[in-house]
């Protein structure tokens, strides 16, 4: 039986926090890519594609993240894929992130005036060119603040991955609590660490909001 | 694939899911009513710019908004007993939801209050209304009306977030699902059905909040 000092607790939590950061980054980047793809097919697409994407967004925004992770974690083995908690968490969070980001970005693209589309079409641009040269550069500026803001939700979402057994910050907190019987200290430290990751992101998002306000209006 | 889906295996345990839906609903209703109440008070404190209290509320809002709900729940359920505050699973779950929604709704409602034109408040002052009267009769309803869609979304998010309360053994819907899959090992089927239940509940909740919003705000327009 070894004693845990406060430093031991903090040190072990910091080691686990690396996984929180890694999972957040992976889910955010992959989710962003999938979200961008969905945005493209939705903006270009026929009514059926639009309906499909809308259903996808509704599904992920209308169900708990925990259920999404459970379905990936328990569902994929049924079709013969053996998934580790890491793969299940990454996949689940990627889908979750893509649904939210595509919805955020849709609003940004729709806020670009119809005249911009028409003017670029009258110059003979096709859809890809319109997107690439006219719409996305403008939409991007509006999209940055809410996107950074949503990254905080992704970081917090990774805590749920602890429930399917992925050892990140929250799971490490539970394990250390079971060893030390000091839940107050341990969960306090866990909360502080999440705060230290998320608060700078929140501040950055707010800063960007102030900076880009004149663009949006 | 050899796996045969058997959704029928859930049917004998429907009572567990039914109880779970009831408890999730209870959690959500109490959490939403008290949480939004807390948010209204917090927003008032923030918007009034009373020096100390406004800052305390600001710290509370940032702390809650930048930490995961699951950690808040664990801190309340496992951590607080160290300070002598012992809570049942249900109490801890409700408290966590109130504290969480309170912070988010403070920020949302504050935006609504700040959007009230200054002329409205000056007009009320010129009618010799005191600060409480101004807040009660002039500020809060139009402010809530402005941000009702955002507040509704946040309440839905809190309802969905309550699924992690199963982790402290609060017997809500996800707890029921975990229990059933431990009985019949039909994890995928159970979670699939429960995901559907959550989807229906979130759609119903959104509709209900819309109706409530119409009732609260539209009716008074012609008074």
Could you name the key traits of this structure?
heterodimer, A: 217 residues, mainly alpha, MetI-like fold, 8 helices, B: 223 residues, elongated, transmembrane transporter activity (chain B), MetI-like_sf (chain B)
Radius of gyration of chain A: 21 Å
Shape call of chain B? elongated
Q: Give the tally of structural domains of chain A.
A: 1
Strand content of chain B: under 5%
Distance between the termini of chain A: 62 Å
Name of the CATH class of chain A: Mainly Alpha
Identify the CATH architecture of chain A: Orthogonal Bundle
Largest sheet of chain A: none
Proportion of residues in helical segments of chain A: over 70%
Structural class of chain B: mainly alpha
SSE run of chain B: HHHHHHHH
Task: Work out the helix count of chain A.
Answer: 8
Query: What is the radius of gyration of chain B?
Result: 21 Å
The first-level CATH class name of chain B: Mainly Alpha
User: What integer is the average pLDDT of chain A?
Assistant: 92
CATH topology of chain A: MetI-like fold
Protein name (chain B): Polar amino acid ABC transporter permease
Family (chain B): Belongs to the binding-protein-dependent transport system permease family. HisMQ subfamily.
Organism (chain B): Thalassospira tepidiphila MCCC 1A03514
Membrane topology (chain B): Multi-pass membrane protein
Would you mind describing this structure in some detail?
The complex is a heterodimer of chains A (217) and B (223). With 217 residues, chain A is mainly α. Chain A has one domain (6-216): MetI-like fold (Orthogonal Bundle), CATH 1.10.3720.10. In chain A, 82% of the residues lie in helices and 0% in strands. Chain A has 8 helices and no strands. In chain A, helix 1 (6-44) packs across helix 4 (85-110) and helix 2 (47-61) packs across helix 4. The longest helix of chain A is centred in the N-terminal third of the chain and has 39 residues, at 6-44. The radius of gyration of chain A is 21 Å and the shape is elongated. The mean pLDDT of chain A is 92. By secondary structure, chain B is mostly helical. Chain B has a single domain (15-222), classed as MetI-like (MetI-like fold). Chain B is 77% helix and 0% strand. The radius of gyration of chain B is 21 Å and the shape is elongated. The model of chain B has no long low-confidence stretch (mean pLDDT 93).
């Amino acid at each position: 039986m070894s004693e845990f000092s406060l430093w031991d607790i903090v040190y072990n939590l910091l080691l686990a926090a690396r996984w929180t950061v890694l999972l957040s980054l992976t889910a955010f980047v992959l989710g962003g890519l999938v979200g961008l793809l969905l945005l493209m097919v939705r903006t270009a697409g026929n009514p059926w594609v639009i309906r499909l994407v809308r259903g996808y967004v509704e599904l992920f925004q209308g169900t708990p993240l925990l259920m999404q992770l459970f379905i990936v974690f328990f569902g994929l083995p049924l079709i013969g894929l053996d998934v580790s908690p890491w793969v299940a968490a990454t996949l689940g969070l990627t889908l979750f992130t893509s649904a939210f980001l595509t919805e955020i970005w849709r609003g940004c693209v729709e806020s670009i005036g119809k005249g911009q589309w028409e003017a670029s079409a009258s110059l003979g641009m096709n859809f890809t060119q319109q997107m690439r040269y006219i719409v996305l550069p403008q939409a991007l500026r509006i999209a940055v603040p809410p996107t950074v803001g949503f990254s905080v939700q992704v970081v917090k979402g990774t805590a749920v991955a602890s429930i399917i057994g992925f050892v990140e910050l929250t799971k490490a907190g539970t394990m250390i609590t079971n060893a030390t019987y000091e839940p107050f200290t341990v969960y306090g430290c866990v909360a502080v660490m999440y705060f230290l990751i998320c608060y700078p992101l929140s501040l950055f998002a707010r800063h960007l909001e102030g900076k880009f306000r004149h663009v949006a209006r | 694939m050899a796996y045969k889906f058997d959704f029928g295996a859930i049917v004998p345990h429907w009572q567990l899911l039914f109880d779970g839906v009831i408890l999730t609903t209870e959690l959500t209703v109490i959490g939403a009513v008290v949480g939004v109440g807390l948010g209204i008070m917090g927003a008032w404190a923030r918007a009034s710019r009373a020096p100390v209290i406004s800052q305390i509320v600001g710290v509370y809002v940032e702390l809650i908004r930048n930490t995961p709900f699951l950690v808040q729940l664990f801190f309340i359920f496992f951590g607080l007993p160290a300070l002598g505050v012992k809570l049942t699973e249900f109490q801890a779950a409700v408290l966590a939801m109130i504290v969480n929604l309170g912070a988010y709704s403070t920020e949302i409602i504050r935006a609504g209050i700040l959007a009230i034109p200054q002329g409205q408040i000056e007009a009320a002052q010129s009618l010799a209304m005191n600060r409480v009267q101004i807040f009660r009769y002039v500020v809060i309803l139009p402010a809530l009306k402005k941000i009702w869609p955002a507040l509704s979304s946040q309440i839905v998010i809190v309802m969905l977030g309550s699924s992690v309360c199963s982790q402290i053994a609060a017997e809500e819907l996800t707890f029921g699902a975990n229990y059933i899959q431990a009985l019949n090992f039909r994890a995928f089927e159970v979670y699939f059905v429960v995901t559907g239940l959550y989807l229906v509940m979130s759609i119903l909740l959104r509709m209900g909040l819309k109706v409530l919003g119409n009732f609260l705000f539209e009716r008074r327009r012609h008074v």
